Amino acid sequence: MRTEELNRALYGSKLRAYALMRRTTYLLSLVSVGLLIYAHGIAQKPEMVQLLFNAIDAILSIFVIIYLFRILYSFERKKFLRRTWFEGLLMAIILLNEVSTYGLQESVIYTFFDSIDIPLSVEVYRVVVSLFMLLLLVIELLETRVHLKTLQFKPTLTFLLSFVFLILIGAGLLMMPNMITSPGSMRFIDALFMAASASCVTGLAVVDPGTYFTFSGQVVLLMLVQLGGLGILTFATFFATLMRQGVGIKQHVAMYEIMESESLFYTKNLLRKLVVMTFSIEAIGAVIIFMTWGQEVQFESLGSKIFFSVFHAVSAFCNAGLSLFPEGLYTEPVRFSYVMHLNVALLIIFGGIGFPTILDVLSPKSMRARMERPWRNWRLLSRITIFTSAVLITMGTMGFFLLEYYNTLAQLSFVEAVIASFFQAVTTRTAGFNTLDISALNVPTLLMFIFLMFIGASPGSTGGGIKTTTFTIILLSVWATIRGKRNVEIGNRTIPHSVSYKAFSVFTFAAMINIFFLFILTITDSQFDIFRLAFEQVSAFATVGLSTGITAGLSDAGKGVIIVSMFIGRVGTLTLALALSTRATTTAYKYPETHLPVG
To answer: pLDDT value at position 493?
Structure first.
């Protein structure tokens, strides 16, 4: 009866209390994010930084109090705790740290991490706090939707604007004084370039991320890579939810087209599955990388080794190719950590075959269903992406081995040469890591790389390029035309002509964009030969990140061209596909046929 009486007593003030708590959380989230940005990016004096974090600790204490009031005003308190278990766990950690820091004058978190030799515990805790603040702010934006209900953006426009917003925010953060190791701040064009490269998961760099950026700057890069890698699908769903009250039928249709889902309603829980799957694969990859660095690779501390492992795991799965080593994975002695190279290559493959294929082949539900019915085959999309990827990787490995055996592979043993060839064949598709000197490769090898980069990864993945399915459909369409067949067929299925038209449209769009941008680069950066510029341009458009070493030497205009190319390569072909998929104009008419000479 006491619980019932308490609920009755609180019932009258519940709506007012929730409104007050929501507004307070929203306001304090904005304030705390501003304080964090100032503390990480601008504040120089330790006393000022400490004062800022004391203020943030006070705000966190208020969040804990608000959470307790939310429990109180939730009349089904057990269900509320089960539903908000993660938030409750964070609040408990914050409360424990607040009590120990200000009550016992000794932080439990810092003491724990110092005991296991992780001196970066202060910075790590601050980063966690920062991410938590941003998460709270996003939750409040989703719940309040202040003044956003009237905005009616199309899904494709929303998708484009989400990446523009991410790049601009990233550039602004990277320009702050505390983000770089040298005095002053980063030039806008360079900050914009690095933000675009990370957000578009490309990997081209005008500076060395490992030595030029501070820990805070490297964390910003890591966040941009993570958000940009998931952005190909989750940004579309997230911002559609943000701008509207739920995901509408148009967004479901767009997601259905991209994911080749079994049903239209299958996409409802897609966001949660993608996030859980991504973090799980990255976490496993980070653990394996941590254990396979090799004894020769030395780190400043255990915390530094953990951060390097996480950074490269996220960069690999998101197919970003950014590394904290001066020459990438070609830096000594990392270039000899061949087991680690294989793990990175595996992460790249997982990130490049696409989420639809991973869900169909590797998700626990699909694996259980296939064990119960072993005769059940993979879906057609999975078969195409896996088969095409395997063929391209095999051809790339064999081609690289034969072309470079007496060049860059000359100093390696047979097994090492095979691993290096396999790694470069995998990473060239869209990741951009390198374990060999790209500038020393033969011209035929670079031509093969341009071909592999242009094709890229698979649909619904973290990679770029025209996609493996586009390439396969074009080949099948050409083969059907040569054989005089009316329909394009694969796997006892007929591919609609509209799909072939989309494939040729994406190919034509990509080819024209690359030729146009290459033409501009020959004007703005004529000091480099056209072949190197072509390699750089295709690498940027396909969001690969491999370079012959000319990126930092590009003019500001040339950097601008590469920035636009990275952006279009990341969202352009997808946007075109979405636009064609959701187009509603009628086609219930047909003009008289005519024939034109072709070829």
So the answer is: 82
Strands 493-495 and 488-490: antiparallel
Q: Is the dihedral of CA 360, 366, 369, 371 positive or negative?
A: positive
Question: Which string of b and e fits 372-389 if b means at least 16 CB within 10 Å?
Answer: eeeeeebbbbbbbbbebb
Q: Are 541 and 513 in contact (CB under 8 A)?
A: yes
Sequence-separated (6 or more) residues with CB below 8 Å from residue 492:
none
Residues in the chain: 599
Q: What pLDDT is attached to residue 189?
A: 94
pLDDT at 597: 76
Give DSSP secondary structure letters for 514-539.
Answer: HHHHHHHHHHHTTTS-HHHHHHHHHH
Q: How far, CA to CA in Å, does 320 sit from each of 85, 107, 193, 330?
A: 33, 36, 14, 16
Residue ranges of the chain with pLDDT lower than 70? 1, 113-159, 231-272, 375, 572-589, 594-596, 598-599
Q: Is residue 548 classed as helix, strand or coil in its secondary structure?
A: coil
Q: What is the predicted pLDDT for the residue at 293?
A: 86
- At residue 190, what are phi and psi to the nearest 5 degrees? -70, -40
Which residue in this structure is represented by tokens 């879906």? 379
Nearest one of 166, 173, 314 to 239, comparing CA atoms: 166
Between helices 215-230 and 155-174, what is the axis angle to 10°?
170
Using CB atoms within 10 A of its CB, is residue 170 exposed (0-12), middle (13-18) or buried (19+)? Answer: buried
Is-contact 455 466, C-beta < 8 A?
yes
Structure confidence at residue 262 (pLDDT): 45
- Residue 490 pairs in a beta bridge with 493
CA distance 160 to 25: 29
Report pLDDT for 362: 76
Closest CA to 54 of 121, 107, 90: 107
Q: Are the CB atoms for 422 and 393 separated by under 8 Å?
A: yes
Report the 3 state secondary structure along 188-204: HHHHHHHHHHHHCCCCC
How far is CA 298 from its chain centroid?
Answer: 28
Strand partners, 180: 213
Closest by Cα among 289, 382, 297 to 343: 289
- Three-state SS sequence of 449-507: HHHHHHHCCCCCCCCCCCCHHHHHHHHHHHHHHHCCCCCEEECCEEECHHHHHHHHHHH
The Cα 213–Cα 175 span in angstroms is: 11
Q: For 263-337, where are the alpha helices, taking DSSP H only?
A: 270-291, 302-317
3-state SS assignment for residue 147: coil
Residue with tokens 């060395």: 208
Which residues fall within 8 angstroms of residue 44, CB to CB, at 6 or more apart? 177, 178
Q: Render 558-575 in DSSP notation, one character per residue.
A: HHHHHHHHHHHHHHHHHH
Q: Tokens 């509320």 belong to which residue?
A: 80
The β-bridge partners of 404 are: none
How far is the CA of 44 from the CAs of 112, 175, 183, 270, in angstroms?
27, 15, 11, 43
* CA separation for the pair 75, 84 (Å, rounded): 14
192 exposed, middle or buried (CB, 10 Å; 0-12, 13-18, 19+)?
buried
Structure tokens at 225: 């890579």
CB burial of residue 19 (10 Å; 0-12, 13-18, 19+): exposed
Number of Cα atoms under 13 Å in the Cβ half of residue 22: 15
